[in-house]
Design brief:
The structure is a single chain. The chain has twelve helices and two strands, in the order αααααααααααββα. α10 runs antiparallel to α11. The N and C termini lie far apart (47 Å). The chain has one domain. By secondary structure, it is mainly alpha-helical.
Length: 337
């Protein structure tokens, strides 16, 4: 296995880690939009309070890995998606600010404003991330100079929008699965009902996305047809989705969260396998950015791999440690958001 493939896998692992970890943070934010009681919204916000900023490290690390290992991809995507990425950054900042500002003033109106900002920013972030993945999957108008000339509205075509909506609903279910382990009483009961309703929407969108992939983006299944063993990933993902309701029915919320977590991992693995060896597929395949024509030098990849092998265990270890320390039900005190 050469360094280019290793770095493709590392980038995929980092972005998958972000989707599976910050995915439930975003899902909890989306759920807050449907939560009426201020104290329940506060509990939801505090359920992710100790972990959300650490979970975002996976995205920052993934972006840094792309910058170092595949600089042409970084330059092309960040210039072509400039407005969309600025919107993503804006809403990420708004989400962070809303959590910090909510409890600064003892006013119901003030708190409601920041509660809504928290929920809306979480929703928009999830949608933008899904739309971005959908656009990359179906290919982009990359020219010979590795530039993408496309505006924000041209990104909002049917396939990316379906993937965006699937991402929103999947993160919502993931957030509900997480919050079920952190809450109790009436709020937990409401979350259970929401999870059960959301599940059926996921089934519909998952089926629609699968059909559209075969019809609109058949190139995404080429690797699966060439090596049918790779179909194990989407099949495991589908099995996890189908088995999820039974865990909710049995009130086995830890296992339900595990299922939703692994479902996202399987979906991201499916996306990565379908994409390989491309990083940014182009409408004209000759202009696609691959792990070879868009990579740094072998020396850079070697040095960065050494750094990654040192840094990634620290990130993984911190993630495990902080979730272990703050496990259990949420309690509200003077230090809470």
């Amino acid at each position: 296995m050469d360094l280019n493939i290793i770095w493709f896998i590392l980038v995929a692992v980092l972005l998958t880690g972000y989707a599976a970890l910050d995915g439930f943070d975003l899902g909890v934010g989306i759920i807050s939009l449907f939560t009426k009681k201020p104290e329940d919204r506060r509990i939801l916000m505090n359920s992710i309070g100790p972990v959300w900023d650490g979970n975002e490290v996976w995205l920052l690390t993934g972006g840094g890995a792309i910058f170092a290992a595949f600089p042409h991809v970084y330059a092309t995507v960040f210039s072509g998606f400039y407005l969309a990425l600025m919107l993503l950054l804006l809403f990420m900042i708004l989400r962070a600010v809303s959590m910090e500002f909510r409890s600064k003033v003892e006013s119901a109106d003030w708190q409601l404003i920041w509660d809504r900002a928290f929920g809306i920013s979480s929703l928009v972030i999830a949608l933008l991330l899904g739309v971005a993945l959908g656009n990359i999957a179906q290919g982009l108008p990359v020219d010979l100079d590795k530039n993408i000339r496309i505006n924000l509205f041209q990104l909002l075509t049917p396939y990316p929008l379906v993937i965006g909506l699937l991402t929103v609903v999947l993160f919502t279910l993931h957030g509900a699965s997480f919050a079920l382990n952190k809450t109790g009483d009436e709020l937990q009961s409401n979350l259970k009902t929401l999870a059960q309703k959301t599940y059926w929407i996921i089934l519909i969108l998952h089926g629609l996305a699968t059909i559209l992939t075969f019809v609109i983006v058949p190139q995404l299944i080429t690797n699966f047809n060439s090596f049918p063993v790779w179909y194990i990933f989407p099949l495991i993902g589908l099995a996890l989705i189908l088995l999820y309701p039974n865990q909710i029915k049995k009130n086995n919320y830890k296992m339900a969260f595990t299922y939703s977590f692994l479902t996202i991992v399987m979906m991201m693995a499916t996306f990565a396998i379908g994409l390989f060896p491309n990083m940014v597929p182009a409408h004209d395949p000759a202009n696609s950015l691959t792990i070879y024509n868009a990579s740094s030098s072998q020396m850079t990849l070697t040095v960065m791999l050494i750094i990654a092998l040192i840094g990634m265990p620290a990130v993984i270890g911190y993630t495990i440690w902080v979730n272990k320390v703050f496990r259990g039900k949420v309690t509200i005190d003077d230090t809470s958001y």
